Amino acid sequence: MPRVRGRDADMRETLTFCRCFAVGLNGGRAVTVDDVVIPLAVTGKQLKTPFPAKQRPLADSCLYCTNDQPSRMDNILEVDNLEMRLRELESRIYGERRNKSGKPVKCAESLARIQAGLTNTANKRERVKILHKKKEDFLLSQAALLEQISNTQPLLDSTYIRDVPEHATKLQRLSQIHIKEQDQTEAQSLEVKKLFEEYNKMMFLLSKQFTQWDETLRKLEEAKGIRPVE
Questions:
Q1: What CA dihedral angle connects 82, 84, 85 and 86, to 10 degrees?
Q2: Distance from C-alpha of 226 to C-alpha of 224, rounded to nearest angstrom
Q3: pLDDT digits (tens, 9 = 90+) for 43-57
Q4: Distance CA 15, CA 6 (A)
């Protein structure tokens, strides 16, 4: 919990407030000034403190500082603000887990230790080095492919590509016409097939009729003794 203490009994009278206090002390936290607890408001209203109204903060995110040491107090509170923001970030990333001593686990330190262990393991294993080499080659090949795609970017910005929506509309109309003509072609194909069947049937009947006529004529010629002409 941050503390702001004065060097003499007149500290309360010289205490002023500004608008740069670390955001994040809300919600149950407090600032202690000479053992006088000043709860931070979460509603954006002025704080209820033992000090006069003119010395109260204007909002819930104000900096408690002294007039005689502004730069030093600013630096201290900026560091405190950064530390609180890092803790909040670690709590959101790592969760509310704690170590054996009951203290919150520091995510950055844990990740650094894990990274160091993995690096040491990778340096001691030849297979891991080979895998890293293959990964490097894979990344280089992917980079080459991405470079080729980047070189073809002007083609994507050409007028032919930009006119694709208009051509798509025309193609849709042509597709509808093609479907209609395809239906007509199927109908005509059925009609032609039917005509071929009728033609084949007619030719079969004619062939059968000519065969019967030829047989009748041959019998008549044999009855009259006429030799057939070869």
A1: 90
A2: 6
A3: 344 444 444 444 444
A4: 9
Alpha-carbon distance of 62 to 4, in angstroms, equals 13
The single residue listed with the structure tokens 């509808």 is 176
Q: Calculate helix-pair angle for 126-151, 107-124, nearest 10 degrees.
A: 110
Q: How far is CA 187 from CA 1, 178, 193, 196, 228, in A?
A: 89, 14, 10, 14, 51
**Residues 16, 55: contact at Cβ < 8 Å?**
yes
Identify the DSSP state of 98. B
Sequence spans of domains, the chain: 3-105, 116-151
Tell me how far CA of residue 94 lies from CA of 26, 83, 86, 99, in angstroms. Answer: 21, 16, 12, 12
Distance, CA of 82 to CA of 88 (rounded, Å): 10
For residue 65, give the H/E element and its range. strand 63-66
Total number of residues shown for the chain = 230
Report the candidate in 1, 38, 34, 36 with the shortest Cα–Cα distance to residue 17: 38
Q: Tens digit of pLDDT for each residue in 152-196?
A: 888 877 888 888 888 888 899 999 999 999 999 999 999 999 999
Mean pLDDT of the chain: 70
Reported as a single tens digit per residue, the pLDDT across 192-224 is 999 999 999 999 999 999 999 999 988 888 888
- Spatial CB neighbours of 43, under 8 Å, sequence gap ≥ 6: 60
Nearest to 95, CA basis, from 104, 86, 85, 103: 104
Report whether pLDDT(14) > 80. Answer: no
pTM given for the model: 0.28
